[in-house]
Amino acid sequence: MFKRLIVILALMSMLLAACGGPAATAAPVEPFRIAVIMPSAITDMAFSQSMWSALVAIQTEMGGESALELKYSEGMFNVPDAAAAIRDYASQGFDIVIAHGSQYGTSVQEIAPDFPEVTFAWGTHVDTFGMPNVYAYTAAAQEGGYVNGVMAAMLTTSQTIGVTGPVEVGDAKTYIDGFVQGVASVDPSITVSKTWTGSFSDVALMTEAAKTHIAAGADILTGSSQSVVGSIGAAIENGSVLWFGTQADQASLAPTLVVASQVYDWTSMLNDIIAKYKNGVLGGESFVLHLENGGLKIAFNPGYALPADVKAAGEKAVADITAGTIVVEP
Amino acid sequence: MNDVFQLSVIAGILTSAIRLATPYLYAAIGETFSQRSGVVNLGVDGIMLMGAYTSFFVVLTTGNIWFGLLAAIAAGLMMGLLMSLISVTLKAEQGISGIGLYMFGLGLSSLLFKTTIGTVKTVIGFQSIKIPVLGDIPVIGAIFFNHSLLVYGAFLLVPLAWWVLEKTTWGLKIKSVGQNPAAADSLGVNVDKVRYASVCIGSMLAGIAGASLSISLLNLFQENLTAGMGFIAVALVYFGNWKPQGILLGALLFSSVNAFQLWMQVLGVKIPSDVAIMLPYILTIAALAVAVRRVQQPAALNKPFERGES
Predict the structure, then answer these.
(1) Which domains does chain B have, with CATH numbers?
(2) What is the pTM of this model?
(3) Least CB–CB distance from A198: residue in B229, B268, B277
(4) Residue B289: band (very low, low, confident or very high) from pLDDT cuts 50, 70, 90
C-alpha cells in the first residue's frame, strides 16, 4: 500500500513538473497595474460603473489579467478612508492610481508628491495642481444633457419635466444645466422643475423627489448620481413616465421607459494615459470627455420605440455640438 | 409661493409625508420597546439594512412578497438575538455594541448584495391598495387610503404598541425592567428574558422598516440603502418621549417638512436648495430643544443588570 502511494506521488510530481516546466522557464512578464478608488459600487449603474467598465474593456483589449492587473476600492464615501486607500495602492507599486471622485482632490494633492514614480488621475475636475504626476479628468456632461433635453422637450405631453439631482455641484449640475438649455431650445414654455436631495446616496429621498415631480404633473424625468435608481424606480411604479439617463446606460433598469442615456466612455482617455505612462509622461494634463472626442456617447434604448423625428432631432443636436455650431454652456 | 397653498399641493405633501414616515415609524417604535426595557440599540440602521437586503433577495428569487416580509423579520430577529447576547448576557457597553452591530449590518448586507445580486435590480413589491369607500373620499382618500399594506401597518402599529406598553402585563414588565430592574427581579420578573424579548421585538420591527423600503416604497436594493435613517429613528424615540404617539408626531413632523421642502423645490420657490434640504433637520432639532422633557426616559436605560447589585 505504502509503495503504491510512493509510486502514485512520484508519477504525479513528474506530471506536474512536465506541465509546469515551460512556464517556469519563461521569464514572467510583469502586468501593468491600475488601482481605482470609487465613492459608490462598481455596479452602481452610474458614475463608478462607467469607470470600471472602461477599465475592464481595456483589460480585455490588452489580453486579460496577465497584461493588466486591476484593483478597486468601492463604497469610499468617506474621504479619509479613500485617502488611506490611495496611499496604500501607491506604496504597493501600482503604476496608475485613479481617484474617481471630485471629493478626493485634496487627498491626491497631498499624496502625489510622495510617489513621483506613480501616476495619479482624479476627477471630475480640471486641476492637476501643477504636479508632473497628476492627471485630472472631467466630462462635459452638459453636452449630452442638452441632447437629452431636446428629445425630452419633443416627447413631453404635459409640458412638465422633472429633474432629480443630488448635490448642486460638478457634473450633476452641468448635466442638468445642459438639459435645461436643450429643453428651452425646443420650447421655452415647458416647465422644468429641479429638486436636489443634498446627497449622492439617499435613494429614499430621491424616490420621493421623483414621486413629487410626478404628482406635480411631470411625464418625463431625468437626473444624475448613483441615487437616481430611486427615481427610475418611481418611474417604473408609475408605469408611463419616461426617463433620460446619464453617466452609464440605464436602459436595463427600466427597459420600456428609458429613452436614452448619456454614457461616459473613459476608454480612450485611459488608453492615452497608459500610453503616456509607458513613454515616461506621468501627468500634468487634464482631459475632458466630449461628444466630439467620443468620450461622451448617446445610447438610445432599443427597447423604447422612439419616434423617428425625435431621434433625428437628438442626432442633429449631437452633430451640431460635435461640429461646434451649438455651444452648451456648463 | 401661492402655489404651495393649493389644495392639490397640500394633499401631495401629506401623501408624501405618510410614505416617508413609514420606515421611521417601524424602526422608532421598535427602538421604543428596546429602550423601555433599558437597552439602547444603536444598531437599528444595520438591522434595517439586513431586513432590506434579505426581503429584497427573497422577493427577487421567489417573487413572493410575504416570504420577503418573513425573511426581513427573521433577519431582524437574528440581529436582535446578537444584540441581546452582547448587551444583556455579556453586559457589554450598549452604545459601543450598537455601533458595532450597525457596522456589521452595513458590511454584511453590502457583501451579500455584491455576491448574490451584484447590480441594482428592481422587484415588484407591495403595491398600493385603495381601501374601499374610504379611498373614494375626495382628497382625503388619496392622502390616507391609497398606500401599500406596509404603510398601513406602520400606522396601525402606533395604537397597537401603545396598547401593549400601557394596557398589558407584558408592557408593565418591559417598563419595570427598564425603570428598576432590581425591584422587578425581586418580584420574580426575569429581567434578562424581558430584555431579550424587547430587543428582539424592536429588531424585528427594524427588519420590517428595512423591508418597507426595499420591497414597498423603493422596490430596489443598493448598498447602504437606508443612508442613516436608523439613527434618525433613534432620535425620534427621544423626541417622542418614549411613547408611540409621540413618535408618530415626530415622524410625521420630520417627514412633512421633508415633503414640504421637496414640493417647494418642484414648484420653484426661490430659496437655495441647501436651505430646503436642511429644513427638516433644523426643525427637528428646534423641536427637540424646545418641547422635550425627558420625563419618560427609563431610569435604567443603558445600564446592564447584574443580579444582587444595585
Answers:
(1) 2-126+147-296 (1.10.3470)
(2) 0.86
(3) B277
(4) confident
